[in-house]
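Before relying on records like the one below, remember that each one covers exactly one chain. Contacts with other chains, cofactors or solvent are not represented anywhere in the record.
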Amino acid sequence: MQTVLAKIVADKAIWVEARKQQQPLASFQNEVQPSTRHFYDALQGARTAFILECKKASPSKGVIRDDFDPARIAAIYKHYASAISVLTDEKYFQGSFDFLPIVSQIAPQPILCKDFIIDPYQIYLARYYQADACLLMLSVLDDDQYRQLAAVAHSLEMGVLTEVSNEEELERAIALGAKVVGINNRDLRDLSIDLNRTRELAPKLGHNVTVISESGINTYGQVRELSHFANGFLIGSALMAHDDLNAAVRRVLLGENKVCGLTRGEDAKAAYDAGAIYGGLIFVTTSPRCVSIEEAQEVMAAAPLQYVGVFRNHDIADVVDKAKVLSLAAVQLHGNEDQLYIDTLREALPANVAIWKALSVGETLPARDFQHIDKYVFDNGQGGSGQRFDWSLLNGQSLGNVLLAGGLGADNCVEAAQTGCAGLDFNSAVESQPGIKDARLLASVFQTLRAY
């Protein structure tokens, strides 16, 4: 066993013995009821499954989330997760068994106890605290230990997530009849990440096994690509590190998507309910979707999107004023603003307001060489035209700071997402008329993006 892991497991054995003294099995075993939330069933279905994780800290990153509140996390995860994982290891992950019932009470999904399980006592304890499944790691357990622990879990109607990290452990998992196999992309010797592990190992598992890819998954692009190999994903650190947890989940499951040209509160709500992160407010007077500050405030009051103000060659003082009055998340520049304009704007804007730059794509891809630009929007022409450019220009490009715009709707959003852009910018193709969004078209677009 690798050194880091060996130390953790040795400490876990000490913890188990101490906990047995403090809370003997005999003191609660009669109160342990079988689980009624079925972990195996929850991971089945046409759509990719997501096990979202409540994790305060880890050995590789230290504290990930200072304001760790399992109740608040569960209240968000319950809208997206197939199952919810809860770290219960105290020493290395600052977890607790006390977190399990808190999460279980708020979220209806099966709850996975994520720990270094080496003793049947831990499984009884997990079920007593309302866990519906447990993690068993083949890097920690021999075959006899695994069989004993899996039998205890199944006797309590609990599911088992069987974790493997190499081909030898994978072969053991197959021989042991594991129903759900988690492929850990993290090397437990040096804590490095290699997503190729999922690509290499998953095809060796039969169709009757549910494959979960674990560790190192943090973008929608990775999820879409690896969904060809895995039935689901376990994601923790990538979500826990973000203050806005709701947006972080959407970013991974759907992409960093924006609905632009909002003019009505009901449309902002429809965009948010569908799965958008950003809402675009256009302040360009020649646009049929132009809004006043008062109209923008009405839109913003209706839904907690991150709002982006769209400007074209505006006076810098006007941009700054609107950004401050409306507490915009970002300003998007759609004209021929040069580096001097951007530098001056950056100095005048509050530090927490990002600057986005829209670039018109013709026969070649424009350079992304501006300073102080946080995101780019690639569009065809001046925006709002409903036309797309030649997306093959995006092949082989690094597009982590790019949103794609131009005629995006349910018929082409999957193809657009597969370009590798961080997100999509929807406007005219989700409208019934300019400035009036269609809630059904919005819902359809985001359902299509999630159908993987």
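Residues 213 and 233 are 5 Å apart (CA to CA).
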